[in-house]
Amino acid sequence: MQQPLSPSGPTGASGASTRPKATRAQFLACDDRDMLRAARDLTRDLATARGEIYWLDLIASAGIGYGAMAGAILVSSVPLAVLLGLVSALALYRALMFIHELTHVHRDALPGFRLGWNALVGVPLLTPSFMYEGVHTLHHKRTQYGTVEDPEYLPLALMKPWSLPLFVLIALLAPVALLFRFAVLVPLGAILPPVRRMVWQRFSALSINPQFRRRPPEGEMRSRVFWQETCGAVWAWVLIGSMFALGWRPILIALAVVSFTATLNQLRTLVAHLWENEGEPMTVTAQFLDSVNVPPPGPIAEIWAPVGLRYHALHHLMPSMPYHSLPEAHRRLSDHLGLESTYQGANHPGLVVLVGRIARSTMGRGRG
Fold first, then answer.
1. Where are the alpha helices (DSSP H) in the chain?
2. Rounded to a whole number, what is the distance in angstroms from the first to the last CA of the chain?
3. N or C, which end of the chain is more exposed by having fewer CB within 10 Å?
4. Angle at 279 between CA 273 and CA 284, to 5 degrees
5. Residues 6+ apart with CB under 8 A from 159
6. pTM (two decimals)
7. Given its phi and psi angles, is residue 226 left (phi above 0), alpha (psi -120 to 50 degrees) or beta?
């Protein structure tokens, strides 16, 4: 096994590293303890979630999203409707991504935020927080990341070429599938326990691993699931009933907006990791290097990876760090560890480069 790269070292005349980036394979057996120690020590003062930032960001994103959707429904100009629909999709995408924060921020840090998020975003988009809570944390477990027990991991870089477009495009069907789940399967499951068990195990988690089966909810989660599913089922039938009162146009536009949002999130998921693990347990450093940061410069990543998700690898080092603190944490670690550090191995230039990397890997598998 190669030795871990040092926190500092020689650079080229331009200041760029003269060594290749650290790779996951270098750290399958041991961690870079200097990096882990720096991540802990340099960011302690950044760990407090600021409620005013969360609430303002959420309300603004949801307000713009629903306002633009209403505009897309009401205007007669097709180009303007498309433009407003795009704005709506991007704003609601940002609002939706706060579900990721809900799973990590301590429940007492943001009083009322879970309820507010579910009322504004989770239930209206038929993606209440129970579909992520208790699921996403499994993805962060030291012994489960990248294994068959990880609900959010597939070795996509090691699969066949056709798997990538299928992985992204299947998200187009997400709004219809969610509508069917809440409008049909939830009421049916209330009557038929076998249906209820099947729906819970297989269709109640935002997972990408087809082998994942969710365990029954326990404790306070049971009550939370009941109320969120009940509200979701009622809202699903309100949406269906709206077709008779308002016609097809509003719900078709809403479904199109949410479909675009789901597809964009699936594309982000495609490049959130390098997907190069074949199922073995990994060190924290190896997990970090199998994950992706897309740091500045450039504002584009903030659009397709909002709410701190452009620092996804850093998030795997510090899962509880609030999203608004990640840019400063990244700056501190980059300055302290330097261009020759392991930390730089998780930094990547952008979406297109990452998609190309995974595509080349699958093409190699296709020829094999």
1. 33-41, 51-74, 78-96, 98-102, 113-117, 136-139, 163-169, 174-180, 186-191, 193-203, 220-246, 248-270, 284-289, 301-304, 312-317, 326-337, 351-367
2. 26
3. C
4. 55
5. 362, 365
6. 0.91
7. alpha
242 Cβ neighbours under 8 A, 6+ residues apart: 250, 251
- The predicted-structure confidence for 84-134, as pLDDT tens digits, reads as follows 999 999 999 999 999 999 999 887 889 999 999 999 999 999 999 999 999
**3-state DSSP assignment of residue 218:** coil
* Beta-bridge partner residues of 291: 273
Q: Which two tokens stand for residue 304?
A: 């397709």
Maximum alpha-carbon separation in the chain: 71
Query: In 3-state terms, what secondary structure has residue 353?
Result: helix
21: amino acid identity, one letter: K
- Three-state DSSP at 11 gives strand
What would the two tokens of residue 77 be? 């100009």
Calculate ∠ Cα 281-282-286, nearest 5°.
160
Q: What is the pLDDT of residues 213-253, one digit of tens each?
A: 999 999 889 999 999 999 999 999 999 999 999 999 999 99
Q: Measured at the alpha carbon of residue 154, what is the angle toward residues 153 and 159, in degrees to the nearest 5? A: 165
Distances (CA, A) of 111 to 87, 115, 215, 225, 310: 29, 9, 27, 19, 26
